[in-house]
Amino acid sequence: MTTPPEPEHLTLELSTATLHALAGGSGTPLLLLHHDVGPFGWTPFHAELARHFRVVAPDFPGFGGSPRADWMRHPRDLAATMLAAARKLGFDRYVLAGLGYGGWVAAEMASFAPGPISAMILAAPAGIRPDESFILDQVMMDYRDYVRAGFSSDAAYEKYVPNPPSKEQRESWDASREVIARICWKPYMYSYELPVTLGDVHVPSTIVWGRDDRVIPPECARLYADALPHASVQLISGGHFLDLEQPDALAEIIVTAAGRG
């Protein structure tokens, strides 16, 4: 991939929150929701998607450039805010893609308001409890070890994260972890209700998982596929941060899935 062009910086003033977002490209709108460690900026993955879509990637409240919204206590609250953001952007019909924690938020959005969503792509989403394993708990470990676990190898981690991480990066991770602990605690990173509410989401959905994901076990791909009426599963090489390790492959899956929606 070539070096991504500079994105646009947007500010969305909503009644529930003020959101900073990066945007680029033209055509079919694509709302892209980030991981629980926060956004990694406008990466080659975003730039590749912007060749096919009008990509808008908001920072969740308390992440990146978006101020905290202390009233939020559940990912459903965040989903309601993201739905408001889509309306504010004028997205009458759009592709919805979520990465990890952002995949959980996307799934909650679809359970609320599936109508405007033409296709949904969830890359290793949280939100459903594994049957045979567990979701890695970032609150109980050093954040550097948690982020490292999101890559399939130390070499992949070191490609994207300075060693040692910068002071700004450490502070960003700390802030992200605080928000996650407040919104996704007890139960940690899953919802008892979500598998039930997804049963009425008749949106073409693609579930993507890295075979070497050490954060959310790949067995959850089957659980999501069982919950969604129109879902397919694709397993690819890589860890949890597929957008960084496998940007071309993940972007191609999203483009193909959007074409079917």
Structure description:
The protein is an alpha/beta fold. The protein has a single domain, classed as Alpha/Beta hydrolase fold, catalytic domain (Rossmann fold), CATH 3.40.50.1820. The protein is built from 10 helices and 8 strands. It has helices spanning 44-49, 75-88, 101-112, 143-149, 154-160, 167-183, 194-197, 219-227, 242-245, 247-260; strands spanning 8-13, 18-25, 29-33, 54-58, 94-99, 117-123, 205-210, 231-236. An 8-stranded mixed beta sheet has the order 1-2-4-3-5-6-7-8, sandwiched between helices. Helix 2 (75-88) packs across helix 3. The two termini are 26 Å apart.
Name its key features.
261 residues, globular, alpha/beta, eight-stranded mixed β-sheet, Rossmann fold
CATH architecture: 3-Layer(aba) Sandwich
In quaternary terms, these chains amount to: single chain
| Widest sheet, order of strands | 1-2-4-3-5-6-7-8
- Main structural class: alpha/beta
Question: Can you lay out the helices and strands and say which pair or pack?
Answer:
Layout: E1 8-13, E2 18-25, E3 29-33, H1 44-49, E4 54-58, H2 75-88, E5 94-99, H3 101-112, E6 117-123, H4 143-149, H5 154-160, H6 167-183, H7 194-197, E7 205-210, H8 219-227, E8 231-236, H9 242-245, H10 247-260
Parallel strand pairs: 3-4, 3-5, 5-6, 6-7, 7-8
Antiparallel strand pairs: 1-2, 2-4
Helix pairs in contact: 2-3
Question: Brief description of this entry?
Answer:
With 261 residues, the protein is of the alpha/beta class.
